[in-house]
Each structure stands twice: as structure tokens, then as C-alpha cells.
């Protein structure tokens, strides 16, 4: 099986080389690995530090969803995995996501960060991250109610799915609404999503985190309702 790992990038010159190193070094037995970087109109030195990796450049910033769609259309793998360019998600978890696929137990796998209570000592110790946790849990609950399958982390970056399925969904999102759109459309097509627990190191807004809890949360809510009805 060939796996295409799509890395959408916007102004990540501080972390892109490290995440590429981690993705390259992760050992995935019996898997042909392809890395596709989509530089989404970065205005820093992101493009200049990347070498020996397939890179596609957007002339202007179009949003994460647009970057992922470009990556899907330019990938050659049987399966697609999304990897954020920061260091929040650990590529060492990729084999855990692939295991149910290789065992024939699942077709679509998500890595869930939220199959747990809030961690007031670490991840949710600040009001900002606690709000993000609650918002994500609420959106995941709404997804479960609307689409009839229990989901704990709809907003996760780690989504593993067949390329054929993605092309059949006719994805349109340009921004962070990619997450609810692909989830809604996969569930409406009858795909069951298996969630695998993963660990993350959340990135703060002072470190470059781009998701806006209120703005992107309302967009996600509208996207879930729009594709359900």
C-alpha cells in the first residue's frame, strides 16, 4: 500500500524541517511512503528551507482546506494522511493509525486527542485551551447526533482515508471548515470512522497557532448543519 502524507504549510519556517525529519524517520513496515508539502502562500522563509521533498506552491494564501485539496489532487497514494506542519502531532503515531487499515478492521481512521476528560494540569490549564477543548467536544457531539456515529474528536488533524473516497466527496472547503466537511461527507457516504487515541503537544497562539475558537467554531457548526440537511 502507498501512503501519501500531505503537509499543508503556511509560515512554518521554524518547525517545517523538524516535522519533515520526523515524518521521514518514522518506520512504517510494508508501506510505500510519499510526502507532499503544499506551501500555502507562505511569506516567511518556509519555501527556501525545504529541499528534496515534493512541494507544491500556492502563489497566495488560500487556507488549509484548499492546501489539503491541492495535496490530494497531486498525490499518488492509495491512502491519504494529513500532517500539520507544526510539532503538535507526533508522526510516531502514524503506525497506530495504519494498523486497523492493514488488519482490515477499518477503512477510515481518525486520531483522537479527546477520548479523555480535560487535563487541568497540562493541556487545559489555561482558559483559552479549556475553551478550545469544550468547543471541540461540543462540535464532536453535534457531529455524532447529526450523523449517527459517535465521534470524540471531529477537529483532529490526523485523518486517514482512501484517496478514492476523498475524490468522490468533491471537497470544497478552503479554510478550517475542511475538518467538518470531510467528516460529514464521509459519514453521509456510509463510511465508519474508527478513532485511535493519540498524544499531542498543543501549540499556543504565541507560537503560531492559527485556529480561532469562536470564528472557526461557528463556521464548523454551520458546515455540519449544511451538509446534513
Verbal overview:
The chain has 229 residues and is an alpha/beta fold. The protein has a single domain, classed as Alpha-Beta Complex (Spore Coat Polysaccharide Biosynthesis Protein SpsA, Chain A), CATH 3.90.550.10. Strands 3-2-1-4-6-5-7 form a 7-stranded mixed β-sheet, sandwiched between helices. α5 packs parallel to α8 and α7 runs parallel beside α8. The longest helix is centred in the middle third of the chain and has 21 residues.
Strand arrangement, major sheet? 3-2-1-4-6-5-7
Structural class call reads alpha/beta
Radius of gyration: 17 Å
Name the shape in a single word.
Answer: globular
Q: Quick check: average pLDDT? A: 92
In total, how many beta strands? 7
Helix content: 25-40%
Assigned CATH class:
Alpha Beta
CATH architecture verdict: Alpha-Beta Complex
How many domains?
1
Count the helices. How many? Answer: 8
Low-pLDDT windows of residues:
none
CATH topology: Spore Coat Polysaccharide Biosynthesis Protein SpsA, Chain A
CATH homologous superfamily designation: Spore Coat Polysaccharide Biosynthesis Protein SpsA, Chain A
Helices and strands, in N-to-C order? EHEHEHEHEHEHHEH
Strand content: 15-25%
